[in-house]
Design goal:
The protein is mainly α. It has one domain. The protein contains four helices and no strands. The protein is elongated and about 45 Å long. It comes from Nitrospira defluvii. This is Hemerythrin domain-containing protein. Pfam families: Hemerythrin.
Length: 136
């Protein structure tokens, strides 16, 4: 797992950074859907790069958090990391695709977008609140 640290020093700021990443990626999904299919390649490359960077940052935060004894979010963190592995496999499939059929690639990419939307929603609803330091 990644050992690099996020730029910010506090978990709250780190979570904000991850949420900002979610918003940026979701906005690019909207851009992707709005442009003509023959112009989407550069946007897909940009999205895939941002997703990979985001997963790396998130795993750095989770690695730090998972190492804290008594963490109640361990199972949730394991689930999130498994989902990251699935997304990475999808990215690898997209990048390694040898088909020139834009429709097939668009359909697969749209499945990946839906997977990421659900993943982001679950993280913000279930994981991020557990990663905040206790009040007080």
């Amino acid at each position: 797992m990644a050992t690099t640290q996020l730029k910010s020093g506090t978990p709250k700021t780190s979570i904000r950074t991850l949420r900002d990443d979610h918003r940026k990626i979701l906005a690019l999904f909207q851009l992707y859907l709005a442009i003509s299919p023959d112009s989407r390649h550069a946007t897909v490359d940009q999205i895939l790069g941002l997703v990979e960077e985001h997963l790396h940052k998130e795993e750095a935060l989770l690695a730090d958090r998972a190492s804290q004894p008594g963490d109640q979010a361990d199972q949730l963190i394991e689930h999130v990391v498994r989902e990251h592995e699935e997304v990475r496999a999808m990215i690898e499939d997209l990048r390694g695709s040898e088909t020139d059929d834009d429709q097939v690639l668009d359909e697969f990419f749209e499945v990946m977008m839906q997977t990421l939307r659900m993943h982001f929603l679950a993280e913000e609803r279930d994981l991020f609140p557990r990663l905040r330091p206790p009040a007080g």
